[in-house]
Amino acid sequence: MELQWYEGLDWGKSEHQVCLLNATGEHIAERKISHTGSDEDL
Q1: How many CA atoms lie within 13 A of 4 on its CB side?
Q2: Helix segments in the chain, DSSP class H
């Protein structure tokens, strides 16, 4: 079974950033999420 997606996660002090790549390394999506303790940013 080959991987179809790769996810990168940068866990910061005030915000976090997530990056999604496909199997060939193409950038698919990216999102910043504030570190507020609330699920409203998801």
Answers
A1: 1
A2: none
Domain that holds residue 9: 5-36
**Predicted local confidence at residue 1, as pLDDT:** 77
The rounded distance, in Å, linking the Cα atoms of 33 and 40 is 10
Between CA 5 and CA 21 the distance in angstroms is: 6
Q: Is residue 17 part of a domain?
A: yes
Residue 19 belongs to some domain of the structure:
yes
Alpha-carbon radius of gyration of the chain: 12
pTM above 0.70, yes or no: no
* Four-point Cα dihedral 9, 2, 25, 13, nearest 10: 0
